[in-house]
Structures are given as C-alpha cells and as structure tokens.
C-alpha cells in the first residue's frame, strides 16, 4: 500500500472508525465545483470536517450537520431535547462549541427554545453555511489537505 493510500486510510479511521469504502476521484473533483456539492456528497462532510479541525473551526460543520438531523425529528419530545442540546453546545454564550452568529439570530433562538419548531435553527444554520462557503471552503480547496487527497487519488487512478 502506498503512503498516500495510508494517509487517506488514517483520515477515515480517525473520523469514522474504519470506513472500508474509499472516496472516489470523481467525488473529490466535484467538491471544487461548489460548496453544496462538497457538503452533500458521501464523504465530503467528513473530509471537510477533518480540514476544519486543522483550522480549529470544526464546530461549524458539526452544527450544520446537527441542524440537518434536527430538521428530520418528528417527535416534539425528541425535538425539544435536541434543541436544548444544540443550544447548550453551540448557541449560548460561552458554549463549548460556540458558533459565530449575529445577535438577532441568537436572540431569536433564545426566544424560541422553550417551544422549538423544526425551523428554529434555520437562520443560524444559514449564517454558518455562508461562513463556511465564503471563508473556509475556498481555503479548503487551496489547502495541502485537499490537494494531497486529490493528487493521491489521481496517482492511484493512473496506476
């Protein structure tokens, strides 16, 4: 096994405890077309999260993914529990994984947290999506992290 393949396996092991499938070159190349393609692909969010850890901003993708899961909750009891967890982890001042959102978005969540709706985190999620799309996504595409992954897959493809 080549060192490049080992590098890729290390990411998968570290992030998902041993994913056996490999990311394809086609998928990795699509990530450079748009942020949406990256974040909605099979392995994109996991690889992007690994990159964000190097920037100490992985709370953004974690929050965005948690919001996607939150929207799918149908039970009011489970929604309330998850809303409180999201609030404690990401929204409240000095939260362990506090995200960078504006005051009106934060205040709206604080007002709605007692009776959370499916959409009560939508504005915060939109803000975080924009932060990632405008700030860290362009850096991700230029990073050694992404370039090395792309190169290792191109090398493997040509062998």
UniProtKB/TrEMBL annotation:
It holds the Pfam family RGS. Signal peptide: none annotated. Residues 34-150 form the RGS domain. Transmembrane segments: none annotated. PANTHER family: REGULATOR OF G PROTEIN SIGNALING, REGULATOR OF G-PROTEIN SIGNALING 13. This is RGS13 protein. The lineage of its organism: Eukaryota, Metazoa, Chordata, Craniata, Vertebrata. The gene is Rgs13.
């Amino acid at each position: 096994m080549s060192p490049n393949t080992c590098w890729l396996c290390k990411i998968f092991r570290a992030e998902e405890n041993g994913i056996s499938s490999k990311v394809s070159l086609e998928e990795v190349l699509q990530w450079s077309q748009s942020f949406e393609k990256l974040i909605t692909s099979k392995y994109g969010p996991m690889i992007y999260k690994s990159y964000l850890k190097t920037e100490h901003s992985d709370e953004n993708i974690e929050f965005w993914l948690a919001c996607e899961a939150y929207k799918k909750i149908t039970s009011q009891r489970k929604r309330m529990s998850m809303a409180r967890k999201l609030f404690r982890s990401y929204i409240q001042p000095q939260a362990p994984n506090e995200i960078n959102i504006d005051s009106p978005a934060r205040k709206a969540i604080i007002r709605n947290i007692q009776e959370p709706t499916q959409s009560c985190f939508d504005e915060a999620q939109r803000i975080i999506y924009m932060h990632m799309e405008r700030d860290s996504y362009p850096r991700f595409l230029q990073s050694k992290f992404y370039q090395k992954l792309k190169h290792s897959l191109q090398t493997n493809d040509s062998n």
